[in-house]
Design goal:
The protein has 254 residues and is of the alpha/beta class. It has one domain: NAD(P)-binding Rossmann-like Domain (Rossmann fold, 3-Layer(aba) Sandwich), CATH 3.40.50. The protein is 48% helix and 13% strand. The protein has a seven-stranded parallel beta sheet, sandwiched between helices. Helix 3 runs antiparallel to helix 6. The radius of gyration is 17 Å and the shape is globular. It starts with a strand and ends in a 5-residue tail after the last helix. The structure holds nicotinamide-adenine-dinucleotide (NAD). The site of nicotinamide-adenine-dinucleotide (NAD) has 26 residues, from helix 1 and helix 9.
């Protein structure tokens, strides 16, 4: 039996990921601001340190897998909170628990990005750079002057890039690291966004070639594929699990 940690474990997708890992016979340490084995607030440096220390203690310093899933939607205000949780919270947990993963059995980690990272047009707003430079105060200040959905998309683009930038170092440590970029899935996050007067209609109009939204379990299956032995030579990918939207919008990137 392996030991895995999952942030955002009380949410729609995080809970499904926990269930999938448990179904494979492994122990899961859930991390969330509510209803979790480790209750911690990933929006602050102090909360992230508490989360990392508590997971380290719960797993006796040895983790076989980790999923950074905790996140906030683009309608949450202030937008700086979205920036803090979605990017800085995720990266802090990944980097902070890397030593535990390095002691694990065939260790792997997955960050939950989003296909909005590429669906929202690129721009020179400087947010992605602030994220990747680790400039949390600068990113937070800029986020509060920006559109919330843009902040969400940029946080998820930066997270995908952060994953890809770590392949050499994490590979040397024998830890695989990948991202999953889901399309729309009905969860408390999207239920709240659907009520928003501007974001709601935009989300409903989002084109999905398979003509339906995804289920949390469909995201969880992809995450498990990347974490488990099936994914043993997959490292540094951003796997779109979105019913075909990314291919529709960016068909010829390859
Ligand atoms: P959700 O709201 O159901 O779950 C998110 C979880 O994160 C919640 O349990 C919440 O308590 C936790 N969380 C929020 N802030 C936190 C904090 N400061 N510290 C610790 N935990 C915190 O949302 P979901 O749809 O299951 O989203 C899970 C992940 O998937 C998010 O990163 C989201 O951006 C991403 N995602 C979701 C969709 C979608 O359509 N639902 C699409 C693409 C990506």
């Amino acid at each position: 039996m392996g030991v895995f940690a999952v942030t955002g474990s009380s949410g729609g997708i995080g809970r499904a990921i926990c269930e999938r890992i448990s179904k494979a016979g492994h122990r899961v340490i859930g991390v969330d601001v509510r209803d979790a084995e480790v209750v911690a607030d990933l929006s602050t440096p102090a909360g992230r340190s508490e989360a990392i220390a508590a997971v380290e203690a719960a797993c006796d310093g040895v983790l076989d897998g980790l999923v950074a899933c905790a996140g906030l939607g683009g309608t949450v205000r202030p937008a700086s909170l979205v920036a803090r949780v979605n990017y800085f919270g995720a990266v802090a947990v990944l980097d902070g628990l890397k030593p535990c993963l390095a002691r694990g059995e065939s260790p792997a980690a997955v960050a939950i990005s989003s296909n909005s990272a590429t669906a929202v047009p690129p721009g020179d707003d400087g947010l992605v750079e602030r994220f990747l430079d680790g400039d949390e105060d600068g990113a937070a200040a800029l986020a509060d002057e920006s559109d919330g959905e843009l902040v969400y998309a940029r946080s998820k683009l930066a997270l995908a890039r952060a994953v890809r930038r770590r392949v050499a170092e994490w590979g040397r440590n024998g830890i695989r690291l990948n991202a999953v970029a889901p399309g729309p899935v009905l969860t408390p996050l999207t239920e709240a966004a659907l009520q928003h007067p501007v974001s709601g209609p935009l989300i409903k109009a989002f084109p999905v070639p398979l003509d339906r939204w995804g289920e949390p379990s469909e995201i969880a299956e992809a995450v498990w594929f990347l974490l488990g032995p099936q994914g043993s030579w997959i490292h540094g990918v951003v796997l779109f699990v979105d019913g075909g939207t990314d291919a529709l919008l960016r068909g010829d990137v390859y």
